[in-house]
Hints:
Helix content is 31%, strand content 24%. The protein is an alpha/beta fold. The chain has one domain: Class I glutamine amidotransferase (GATase) domain (Rossmann fold, 3-Layer(aba) Sandwich), CATH 3.40.50.880. An 8-stranded mixed sheet has the order 2-1-3-4-10-9-8-6, with helices on both faces. Strands 5-7 form a two-stranded antiparallel ribbon. Helix 2 crosses helix 3 (90-98). The longest helix has 29 residues, at 203-231.
Amino acid sequence: MKSVLAIRHVAFEDAGSFASILAARNFSLRYLDAGVDSFSEIDPLDSDLLIVLGGPIGVYEEESYPFLVDEIDFIRTRLKKDLPTLGICLGSQLIAKALGASVYPGPQKEIGWKPLTLTEAGKSSPVSPLAGNKTSMLHWHGDTFDLPQGATLLASTDVCKHQVYSVGKNVIAFQCHPEACAATMERWLIGHTCELGHAKISVPDLRTQIAHHGKTLESQGAKFFTEWLDSLGALPPDPRQRK
């Protein structure tokens, strides 16, 4: 059985709709809870796929959240071996940081639903099912980052140019949330109530958007994730052999 390690920063931002796809493909999924579990006790190469999930903290807040230093080192070690890695929201920022790029507050918060604009590279990549004419996308972030050296930009929005990027064929990162699952989004509305209130975003309006766009995103997100997993080919049976 192939293994997936997902780094989780808040309990409700999990693998979402991707979890059922992994189960159907006979992947075992386990979570490392950042700030609770120790990165030193887990080999970053000892999983077939790493997923780095979202969260409300900033990559640059190492003084407040010291585990970020170990987490970035953990991710960097894996990236140096070019092992399959997926970043989502905070995860995309952590990957960018691990690759030497700067991460910083964006011009404004981007919370809600809007379509992606794919680059030419994005249109010919596994991200193509997430094009704006096929689905709207959930956005929930305030930070952004410089595109890492050697990365390929795959998608943008008017607020955030660097929405999706890839590094080679084994690493892909989303500032947005392709894994969003409509059935569990109420947990987000509860967990992020302070952020939504501060940003003056209507929870009922956001709930209506989730009801309108959620199932379509789940369907198109599944197409992306399946296509990307297929593009990886035969995942290494034992990544430790690549040390």
